[in-house]
Amino acid sequence: MAPKDAIDIPSFATTQLALLEAELQSELLETSSLISNTSPTALQRAGLAITNLTLTSQRTGLGGKTVVELGPDSATASKDGQLAEHGVRTGDIVVVSEMPSGSARKKEVRELESKGCRGVVTRVGSRAVWVALDEREGDERVGGKRLWLVKLANDITYKRMNQVMQRLQKMKSEEYSSFVRVLFGLTSPSPVSRDVVEGKDLEWVDLSLNESQKEAIRFALNSKEVALIHGPPGTGKTHTLIELILQMLKQNLRVLVCGPSNISVDNIVERLAPHKISIVRLGHPARLLPSVLNHSLDVLTQTSDAAAIVQDVRKEMDTKQASIRKTKSGRERKAIYGDLKELRKEYRERERKCIGNLIGGSKVVLATLHGAGGFQTRDEVFDVVIIDEASQALEAQCWVPLLRASKVVLAGDHLQLPPTIKSLNSKTTKVKTKDSEDAIKGLTLETTLFDRLLRLHGPGIKRMLTTQYRMHEKIMRFPSDELYESKLVAADGVKARLLKDLPYEVQETEDTTEPLIFFDTQGGDFPEKNEEEVDKKAGNGMVGESKSNEMEAAIVKRHVRNLVAAGVRPDDIAVITPYNAQLALMARELKEAFPGIELGSVDGFQGREKEAVIVTLVRSNASKEVGFLGEKRRLNVAMTRPRRSLVIIGDSETLQGNKFLKRWIEHLEECSDLRYPSVSTLNAL
Ligand SMILES: Nc1ncnc2c1ncn2[C@@H]1O[C@H](COP(=O)(O)OP(=O)(O)OP(=O)(O)O)[C@@H](O)[C@H]1O
After folding, report:
1. What ligand 1 atom has the least distance to the C-alpha of 239?
2. Pocket of ligand 1 (CB under 6 A)
3. What sign has the CA pseudo-torsion 221, 226, 227, 232?
4. ipTM of the complex
5. 236 Cα–ligand 1 center, Å
6. What are 466-475's pLDDT values in tens digits?
7. Residue 481: what are its φ and ψ, rounded to 5°?
8. Is the pLDDT of residue 373 over 90?
9. Contact of 257 with 265, CB cutoff 8 Å
10. Which fold has domain 30-157?
11. Which of 94, 263, 274, 542 sees the fewest Cβ atoms within 10 Å?
């Protein structure tokens, strides 16, 4: 029987397409306004371009693509031959194009692309940068000119999400598999017997698993269509997934493992590798961690036996490409390009076969959600798709691998921050659809698949990991009670750990023997300041608004100094804040005074941990306005980063402006080491 809020699949896909389009447009608008309003030199300074380049060499990379090496133009290069300072990174999508002449200041992205060629940066060195060109004859278009390279908005990810949503949109209802029907609530998930989940034990590979991890694994193994593994901070989600994958292999299942980012996938490859199973990691080798390269498809296609036959053609292509540069005759060049075209075709055919054999013979394939949609897996079918960090992924992204499987296991924590959305429209607009308005209502791009499934089928489809291996018990208490139904338990090894117990010499002081400290800045002496945040990248006056609080920054500085004086190493300390202006205010001074200390935004620190974390909340005003600080999931991330020491700096009066914050303040007033900083002593510092 279908739950009452079953979703009409075509309407869902239509809604997603509209939301994705709005998001893409806002991203493109941001980049194109930067490119057309800024001079090439200013774009370079802003980290978005590298100017004055020439083509220094080229070779054939994976997929028969041409990889060009670009170095500084000799006429303008510095003496040491190094590239000027820039912000282009491996993996960036760029266009390589002829430099505009001095007078042609106004540039449009379209014009850049028509003159040049798009590609992906595969390597960045101090004297050169390497780009894999998208077009087959791209090298022909960029050779022999003074070039520049400009970073573009990444619309490739959107293309894949759009394709998969269009497939869903067009699918006829008789084509829906029972798996797809469950994911949209047209059918309920098959029940999983309690006896199976709680009963007979499996033969565990990892004997250290705790009971909640074991239960989650048994549950995921026995669910037929869908299982959610809910992993609050520090509860060992990845640890659990590794065992789950090994157990699935024992059952002879074929598994596709995905995550939203390369690092989330590499993390799993690194931990699976010691188990000596055959795994293939898909993805551009330039974007992978060095430690996982041996499992990457690119390396395997060069080293495996089947690869030799591909290599022969590659060598021939490289020789031909080198000969182009030697010949001046246009006719000869044309003939060589003709030969290259043929060789590329041959190369691609051989490579496809080799890749097919490698992937087909592998029981575990790992890729980013986006990467799972590549040509290499087009004909592959999997028994299960496992998605780690699922609450950080857009739903449309998850569908890229999902149409290749008949079961999904999602691991994540919907009570931490969702993926970042740029367009306000996609965050707030509830797109109306003709057919199924009620079911789609409330759906935004921020609604993840994890959220939606939980809402659709209820908590019966999830199991929560409950032992956490990160925080002191006192740090854990509030998030556990407020967000995780008081179910979190601190593991014995961490529940009473203090800074003074660090494995190096730390003195016992009031700061190193107390896990939870609250500096209450109430009273109006620590006012917030409104800062106009000029978008530095833009350099064109695009302005946002952020807040800062100088007096809170002074408390941070004093506290860090005290910790370091007691012996705590700066690289065990992080200062985090929701506001960029506050970061900007503190960063330089703290980094210079305490090399190794980390500063970051709360959003940027998700997934990380530190021994000591200082959170400056910044807001302090008479009208009790807390703005985006009121978001529970952001506060949850902020308060669950530390292992041994959490220090909060905030104005208890202002923070009454939000219910969750108010309860947190009450908790801190009752359970923390409460301190009232004095302005005069801070001023005297
Ligand atoms: N059963 C266990 N016994 C002992 N330590 C464990 C166990 N499970 C996880 N841990 C430890 O907990 C820490 C976090 O685990 P892991 O890295 O797997 O979690 P994660 O999913 O990456 O992070 P998080 O759960 O914080 O999102 C690691 O140091 C890991 O060794």
Report:
1. 18
2. 208-210, 213, 231, 233-239, 469
3. positive
4. 0.96
5. 3
6. 999 999 999 9
7. -65, -40
8. no
9. yes
10. Elongation Factor Tu (Ef-tu); domain 3 (2.40.30)
11. 274
